[in-house]
Fold this sequence. Notes:
Blueprint: E1 2-3, E2 6-10, E3 16-20, E4 28-33, E5 43-49, E6 54-59, E7 73-77, E8 85-89, H1 98-101, E9 105-110, E10 123-129, E11 133-137, E12 145-150, E13 171-176, E14 181-186, E15 190-195
Antiparallel strand pairs: 1-2, 2-3, 3-4, 5-6, 6-7, 7-8, 9-10, 10-11, 11-12, 13-14, 14-15
Protein name: Selenium-binding protein
Organism: Enterobacter hormaechei
Amino acid sequence: IIAGDTAYGSWRDGGLTLLDVKDRAQPKLISHRHRSPPFGGGTHTALPLPDRDLLVVLDEAVLDNQEDGEKLIWLFDIREPSNPVSISTFPQPDETDYVAKGAHFGPHNLHENRPGSFVSSTLIFATYQNAGVRAYDISTPYRPVETGALVPAAPEKMMDTRPNRPQVIQSCDVFVDAQGIIYSTDYNGGMSVIEYLG
């Protein structure tokens, strides 16, 4: 995602990069952060919140039962782009044992504050695969708080035809429209349309 003249790159197991793209033909590395090891890697989405000098960074779970390690959503202070500092992590869903539930447990994607959609630098929406869709308040950046969650029902029919796949949801992508209606897709369960009530 690009904000101003900075591109925020998610390079999977290569970590997070901030690039100066003032000259779009000659990007220049500003900084690089790599958290794997000890964490599981898989940096998938970097969402800049330029009005607050914050960056939300999500690491994607891609294997069943956390076989690829624990994946987190991180909050970075980017006041000094050459030295992004992790200041907190978002709370993980813990109302049930999602690792034992089967399939992928962990973050997958963020609502990206695209033009014409819901835009907020304090309310963040994320998908958590078998743990559904999550909303977080980051008004206090050192202590993100979960403010809402919806775990859709298990799919009636599996689109994933691999043998012995668990029949559980896998909330993958999320988009929030300008009216605040949440659309989340699941490659087995289709699309969920959700109203956030706080």
